[in-house]
Design a protein that fits this description.
The complex is a heterodimer of chains A (about 425) and B (about 375). Chain A has about 425 residues and is mainly alpha-helical. Chain A contains 18 helices and 8 strands. In chain A, the strands form 3 sheets. A 3-stranded antiparallel beta sheet of chain A has the order 1-2-3. A 3-stranded antiparallel beta sheet of chain A has the order 6-7-8. In chain A, strands 4-5 form a two-stranded antiparallel ribbon. In chain A, strand 6 and strand 7 form a beta hairpin. In chain A, helix 5 packs antiparallel against helix 6, helix 5 runs antiparallel to helix 12 and helix 6 packs antiparallel against helix 7. The termini of chain A are far apart. With about 375 residues, chain B is mainly alpha-helical. Chain B has one domain. The interface between A and B is medium-sized, with 30 and 27 residues.
Chain lengths: ~425, ~375
């Protein structure tokens, strides 16, 4: 059939011949969010729809802006850590870690080995909770509520472990400058192994219900695709980029803490659609469980030891000495009222958070108050390519794509 | 005569609508809870009595009745009011043609357990189903909301498309039973047939092992038309707009679709219509495919024949009636359970994928099914004994 038989859209619109002219239709402008079940009050999509297909999509963020970076400039370095808890409600430990690693870089501290293993364990628990929420919520928003609740049950177990580590389930404030809040409790390895077994059971159930489900595959396969060159151009990191086939993982590429000694794989996808993202996340959960088991093994082999740097700049002196010696009393007084004095300079620390590369750029002028705390939020950068992923797709494709982009309001808007 | 119609309609209203529909909401909560490792509804209590959460449906209805009834600015007030009524009424009156028992002889009078014993019973179901579509579409259109409109458009496309498939997928059943009348279908299913009987046409039955050749199955639609069963169930579930076909109300995409702007008991009517339709679907599937009220391998004559010498004719008929109605209810409960299992394990389709399923898979298959059924019937009639 000859090409010129077919009129272009524009030609049909303006044609004089009634037979050629299309029925006049208008695009519909739709405000999706911020109060919409899929956007959770944190983001707004301004969608131009042609029927149900997306012609244009504009993402408007900032509904959860709380001035995290500015707030940090008004407190001591220690007082920033609880703020980092509030960046991502699923994986507070990862944000704690990113910030503390940066401060330690400025201070030039090297944390004890026992502390490092526990930090790795804590961050993997966080990653697990984050991925469980992401995969579960994606199922929920595709109306499969049963796997969501399996995922949430498993997340509760990871939060049980977090609670055992630091006493809090969500806003952990676990990782401190130069160490962790305290050593893991006695009996933690047993509890942890028991919970890991139960999480594995739940992941198996989850997998059995949803992974091979034909409707689920149809909804996920081929939706939200974007090639890796575009993703890299947008600065996307984390599972989103790995699903497109780029094995970029800070834990492997620039190992921090003890990740270099650990045996784990970085799963990558092929196409970069939502189904690949799902599979990558599920595999990463299994890898996290492996890492936690290795950490437990190493911690048991290591035996008891300090979990904090014995550096007077960041540690309080022992209480017995504070009560009896002038110097320690003054030191305690300064530590409480001012907090640690961090040498002048700047540092960029980076951790592989569940969403991708979570970075903190810190500037100090030598005082007890940060001059600049800049967070590189993976959520914001991952959100950017969404219009490109979705143009020409259907309205319903926003849901799985947005779920696997996993925009966390607190982290994105800061 | 009208008195027995009134009595039968009342029976349907009391058993199916008033008693079963709220219980189905409870079943849905409890069953999903069992499937999801939860406890489920158990909080509503009356003087400390909780009854496993069975009071929740009552509490729900009370809450919905006392809620403020909001009509959005710019909505068409009349249509906004009428739409839920159409949906609920269409769901309730579908029951009329579903037989829940056979015909029983009490002295001179004959009792026929169906509210409206009409010759075109199944067509009536289709007609009423099309009416239900109006409720949804009007609700979407009258609400003056983008989400409602999108939901209404989705619903109209979905319900009209699936009506075609729904009709064609039971053509095979019409041919097998030779009737559109649901009572006749139920009677026809109160018998057995030899599974491989149709092979007699080809004269191969004699070569088969004897036991295999003489396997008897109840003459249920599901055994005669297995493909028709699956297709009809799919189509009618899509017609009801429950997950996995709840595209018109896909809450993560279009908020709540056509009933976004409904509150109070108007929303409650949509909700009720959905649950009543679950029961209608269960009843219809039972009547067409699962033998209706019939007890497998025990035809009505045999039951009454066995009971008559013991209890006399009237009592025997009554006992048989009780047995049949309980069997029917049992099958209905099974079908409700089955729908719930599907509802709680499947994700939602996407709009275009569901249309593909309808037009590209179910429609050709149902035509092929009708063709193959016709061929076999023709062969058996022409060459069979």
């Amino acid at each position: 059939m000859a090409e010129d038989q077919w009129l272009t859209y524009r030609e049909r619109e303006t044609s004089d011949d009634d037979f050629d002219r299309d029925l006049h239709t208008e695009h519909q402008i739709l405000n999706m969010g911020p109060s919409h079940p899929a956007t959770h009050g944190t983001v707004k999509f301004l969608i131009e729809l042609d029927g149900e297909s997306i012609v244009d999509l504009d993402i408007q963020v900032g509904y959860l802006h709380r001035g995290f970076e500015k707030e940090c400039e008004s407190g001591s370095w220690y007082q920033c850590i609880p703020y980092t808890d509030r960046l991502n409600y699923n994986s507070a430990i990862l944000a704690n870690l990113g910030f503390c690693l940066g401060v330690e870089k400025l201070l030039g501290l090297e944390t004890p080995e026992r502390c490092q293993w526990q930090r790795v364990m804590g961050s993997e628990l966080s990653r697990l909770a984050d991925h469980l929420t992401r995969c579960g919520a994606a199922c929920l928003e595709l109306a499969a509520m049963t796997p969501f609740l399996y995922g949430i049950q498993a997340r509760e177990l990871t939060w049980d472990l977090t609670e055992a580590l630091c006493g809090a389930r969500v806003t952990t404030n676990y990782i401190r400058i130069g160490g962790v809040k305290h050593d893991m409790p006695a009996g933690f390895p047993e509890q942890c192994r028991d919970h890991i077994a139960r999480i594995r059971e739940l992941l198996k159930d989850f997998d059995a219900v949803i992974t091979a489900n034909r409707i689920f595959i149809d909804r996920m396969r081929g939706t939200g695709v974007l090639d890796k060159e575009r993703l890299i151009a947008f600065g996307v990191t984390g599972p989103l980029l790995r699903a497109a086939g780029v094995p970029l993982d800070v834990r492997k590429d620039e190992p921090y803490l003890t990740y270099a000694e650990l045996d784990f794989d970085v799963p990558v996808g092929e196409v970069g659609d939502n189904y690949d993202r799902y599979l990558v996340c599920v595999e990463e959960m299994h890898q996290s469980l492996r890492i936690i088991e290795q950490c437990l093994e190493r911690l048991e082999k290591l035996g008891p030891g300090p979990v904090n740097v014995l550096d007077p700049r960041v540690r309080w002196p022992a209480k017995g000495r504070v009560f009896n010696h002038m110097e320690e009393l003054i030191q305690q007084f300064k530590a409480v009222t001012e907090g640690p004095m961090v040498p002048a300079g700047e540092a960029y620390s980076v951790v592989e958070s569940a969403n991708g590369e979570l970075g903190f750029y810190l500037v100090s002028d030598g005082s007890a108050v940060p001059v600049k705390v800049r967070c590189r939020p993976p959520s914001l950068l991952n959100l950017q390519p969404m219009p490109e992923m979705l143009k020409g797709c259907l309205l319903a494709d926003i849901i799985p794509t947005f779920d696997f982009v996993n925009m966390i309001g607190g982290e994105c808007d800061r | 005569m009208p008195w027995d119609v009134v009595a039968k309609s009342l029976f349907i209203l009391v058993v199916a609508v008033a008693a079963l529909a709220p219980v189905v909401t409870w079943v849905e909560r409890k069953q999903s809870a069992v499937m999801q490792d939860r406890i489920g509804a158990n909080r509503a209590d009356l003087f400390g009595i909780r009854l496993l959460g069975l009071l929740h449906p009552a509490a729900d209805v009370l809450k919905l009745i006392f809620k403020e009834d909001v009509v959005p600015i710019g909505a068409n007030r009349v249509m906004h009011l009428v739409a839920p009524l159409i949906a609920a009424v269409a769901a309730i009156i579908s029951f009329a043609v579903i037989p829940y028992g056979a015909t029983y002889q009490f002295g001179d009078s004959t009792v026929n357990l169906v509210a409206a014993d009409i010759d075109w019973g199944l067509l009536y179901i289709f007609a009423v189903g099309s009416l239900a579509a109006y409720g949804t579409i009007l609700a979407g259109w009258a609400s003056n909301s983008n989400w409602s409109l999108l939901g209404g458009i989705r619903a109209s496309a979905q319900m009209i498309s699936y009506e075609v498939t729904m009709g064609l997928s039971v053509v095979g059943v019409f041919m097998v039973f030779g009737t559109l009348k649901l009572t006749d279908m139920a009677f026809a299913q109160d018998a057995t047939f030899r599974l491989l009987g149709f092979l007699e046409v080809f004269g191969v039955v004699d070569h088969l092992p004897r036991w295999l050749a003489w396997i008897q199955l109840p003459m249920w639609g599901v055994f005669l038309q297995p493909l028709g069963f699956i297709m009809f169930l799919t189509a009618i579930m899509a017609e009801n707009k429950r997950p996995p076909f709840d595209i018109p109300e896909g809450e993560s995409e279009i908020v709540a679709g056509y009933h976004t702007e409904y509150s109070g008991m108007r929303f409650g009517l949509f909700f009720m219509a959905e649950f009543i339709e679950v029961i209608v679907i269960a009843g219809l599937m039972t009547a067409i495919f699962l033998g209706g009220w019939s007890i497998p391998y025990l035809p009505q004559e045999r039951i009454i024949g066995a009971l008559e010498p013991l209890f006399g004719s009237g009592m025997a008929n009554l006992l048989c009636m009780v047995a049949h109605v309980s069997t029917f209810l049992l099958k209905v409960v099974f079908m409700i359970w089955f729908q719930m299992v599907l509802r709680w394990t499947q994700p939602r389709f996407r709009y275009d994928q569901m249309m593909d399923l309808c037009w590209k898979i179910l429609l050709p298959l149902s035509i092929a099914n009708a063709f193959v059924t016709g061929t076999i019937i023709l062969l058996v009639r022409s060459y069979g004994s």
